[in-house]
Every structure is written in structure tokens, then in C-alpha cells.
Design goal:
Length: 170
Amino acid sequence: MYYVCMKNENVKIESLFRQHYRQMHRLATLLLHDDAESKDVVHDVFAQLMDSPDRRLDGDTAAAFLLTCVRNRCLNVIRSRKIHERVQRLYLLNIDTTVIPADFLKEELKALAEGITLLSPPACRQVVEMHFNEGLSFRETALKLGVSETTVYKYLRSALNQLRTHIKKD
């Protein structure tokens, strides 16, 4: 008896597939711009429908439900694409294949050190040293100096702007 019910449900799903496949595929293609991926999305929706224990769909709501499922699945695919692209970009940014001569780096470090000693007010220099040399966060630096995090941020921004102008002059 259970087999007969399952068979009837499969027949219903098959008729839904035949009835709505073109419309679902068209929507997926519009969203994804990839025919193969669009077919995969539509087939995944029907596979999930067959695996779900409660798969009763009325004729009136079936089209809307299936199109909503396709849209949501496409949005998930697009989101995963964006995340994948972002990770690839970040990975490529971390790979630095340029070779910089040691003399050039020494000159840059010397210019930075000179710029840091010339920073005014001295609180800016202290914030830069605590943040970069000691690796303290804004909150930790603020607690040590007895000022707000906003003040630490402003000192650091001011110091970095001064360093930029000092390096550009050289």
C-alpha cells in the first residue's frame, strides 16, 4: 500500500516537472547566465521535493512554490560564487611575487623611522609605537594611555597622514 502511495506521489512530481520545467529553467538561466548550472538548480529543486516527507503541492500554489525554490537556490549559488571569488582575490593579494632589493627596503624603513621621530604631538608617536611595535589594539592602547578609543584612532590617523607626507617629500 505504501509503495502505491509513493508511486502516486512520484507521478504527481513527474507531472509537475513536465508542467513547470521550462518556466523554472528560464528563471534560473536569467539569474545565473549559465545553462548547465540552471539545469542543475532545477533538478536539485525536484530532488529535494522528492526527498521531503511532506510533498503535497496544490495545483494553484505549485508554480509559485517551485519558482520561489528556484529563485532561492539561484541566490545561494550566486552568493557562493561571490564568496569564492572574494577568497580567490584575497589569496592572490597575499601572494607577492615581486622581489624588492634590500637596499630599497632599508631606505624606506629609515624614512619611516625618521618620520616617526618627527611626529608631533608626542602622543601620536606613542600611539604608533604601541599599535605597531607592541601590537596593541585600539582598546588596549586607550586603556594604557587613559584616553578613549576614538582619541587613539584620531592620533593614529593623524600620525599616518604625517608619515605619508614625510615619505612623499623624500
